[in-house]
Amino acid sequence: MKIYKTAAAIALGSALMITGAALGESLAKDPCTPPNFPVPTFDASKTYQVKDFGATGDGTTNDTPAIDKAIATCSDGGGGIVHFASGTYLVASVHLKSNVELLLDKDATITGAKTGYDLPEPNPYDKYQDRGHSHFHNAVMWGENLENFAIVGGKVNGGGTTQSDKFADGAGDKVISVRVGKNLLFKNVTHDTGGHFVYLLNDCTNVTVDHVVIKKSRDAIDFMSCSNVQVHNCNFTGCVDDTIGVKSDYALGKKIKSENIYVWDSYFESGCNGVQFGSETAGDFNNVNFWNIKIGKAFKAGIGITTNDGAVITNVHYRDFTISGAANPIFMLITRRLRTGEPDAKPGTIRDVTIDNVTVTNVVPGRQGPANPATISGLPESHLQNIVLNNVKITYKGGGTKEDVNIVPPYPKDYSPKSMGTRPAAGFYIRYVDNLQFHNVSLMFEGPDERPPLVADDVNGFELDHFSAQKVADVPTMWLQHVKDLFIHDSPPLKDVKEANVEDAKY
């Protein structure tokens, strides 16, 4: 990332209170670098064949008891590999154990039955998140306090599981769920179908998802309060909801911090958000990094960061994204929903975010709402802080009217982009941000739009350099209100501006 010695950059350094030595150290370490978290290993000499325990693999017999016996025997014997030869294994609520690798042949498939799943376990905190997040046992396979576990190869499908929050006793709604885990590996696995989730992982550490394919589900993976996560070389399509969900709910009865999450070299298509924080955001988030990502569809937002339940989201980096088919290219929002069991909860914040080398095309309406400009929206009592965009190019369809210019979007509790309604800007709508930098940001339009490309309100410290925006004649490039420490430079045809206080001005 290029370092600009400007007033805004100096203010940013001051706000972060970084010493010279610490700043040098932080710049020397590229956040978009594979972290090499530990992965579990297993003794191949201790391999157990599920068919030796009575599994048929015929696709019609319930193989759950036989597979459970093989897993338990492997775990009780000190761990090893449970092997699935070619076949289709029909199951409902396989019980996972520690120190076990499920190794599937290329033509081996584990698939969920329509009924026979374990009942959803009681959860006194289920009112703080959707029903699917609150329960773990009604899954194709599940584990608790699971350590050193892997699934490698083959297919694991949802089969008869549902994508709905409403389901009868005996039905399943997720493929793989883990309630508290450590050292987990999912590698070279294909999921033709999912459920509400393919993976629901809550309070898990050292998680590796490597070369996983998901072809159809509601959510692909929800990382709930997880740390030390690495996801790479994955392909998730056919998702009705989020693909990568970085989240933190209250299902375990407490706030749990999420940190050190890395996602790279992957392709996603989503009926909601390409890569997303929330909506569940009870615990804080730190050091989350995405790079070399292609998003082919996102009916809510390509890049989405929301804090709704009090979380502080900090130290987040996006780099080298191509996004097409997103209804909202970038969406950053703070709300007052506060769906959490913490009695003193207050709105959280989003800070220290960089978005580098992002190209967005084909911004179109999606199933979740209309097309909207990129949005960075805080609250009067809770501002976003230290947001930097470098080399961001967005092409919009256009179509906004003069009547839209005077609209003031509400402060919704709903985290969805459509809840804010029409924006008064064509390219970026910004409010309540401290220390915002745009470097080489370009906005283009395929058709006329009578709104200013950029509208900002209540921004403290705003720098734009090499900023450009295609616009309609007689429409200003920017409309700024209540902006302090404005610095515009090297952005023709805009004139250089350095103002301490801008109450209401159009440029």
Strand segment count: 30
Total helical segments? 4
* Low-confidence runs of at least 5 consecutive residues: 1-27
SS-based class: mainly beta
How would you sum up the major sheet?
26 strands, mixed
Q: What's the alpha carbon Rg, rounded to whole Å?
A: 24 Å
Query: What is the 3D form?
Result: elongated
The overall average pLDDT, rounded, is 94
For the record, the count of structural domains works out to 2
* Distance from first to last alpha carbon: 28 Å
Helix content: under 10%
Query: How much of the sequence is in beta strands?
Result: over 45%
Structural overview:
This protein is mostly beta strands. It folds into two domains: 1-30 and 275-285 and 295-507, no CATH class; 41-270, Single-stranded right-handed beta-helix, Pectin lyase-like (Pectate Lyase C-like, 3 Solenoid). The protein contains four helices and 30 strands. The protein has helices at residues 7-16, 20-28, 64-76, 131-134, and strands at 47-49, 58-62, 80-84, 87-91, 94-95, 100-104, 108-112, 139-152, 155-157, 174-187, 190-191, 197-210, 213-214, 219-224, 227-232, 235-239, 244-248, 258-270, 273-281, 285-307, 312-324, 326-334, 349-361, 374-377, 384-396, 428-445, 454-465, 468-469, 478-489, 497-506. The longest helix has 13 residues, at 64-76. The chain is elongated, with a radius of gyration of 24 Å.
What's the short story on this structure?
Helices cover 7% and strands 50% of the residues.
Summarize the topology.
Layout: H1 7-16, H2 20-28, E1 47-49, E2 58-62, H3 64-76, E3 80-84, E4 87-91, E5 94-95, E6 100-104, E7 108-112, H4 131-134, E8 139-152, E9 155-157, E10 174-187, E11 190-191, E12 197-210, E13 213-214, E14 219-224, E15 227-232, E16 235-239, E17 244-248, E18 258-270, E19 273-281, E20 285-307, E21 312-324, E22 326-334, E23 349-361, E24 374-377, E25 384-396, E26 428-445, E27 454-465, E28 468-469, E29 478-489, E30 497-506
Parallel strand pairs: 1-3, 2-4, 3-6, 4-7, 5-8, 6-8, 7-9, 8-10, 10-12, 11-13, 12-14, 12-15, 13-16, 14-17, 15-18, 16-18, 17-19, 18-20, 19-20, 20-21, 20-22, 21-23, 22-24, 23-25, 24-26, 25-26, 26-27, 26-28, 27-29
Antiparallel strand pairs: 29-30
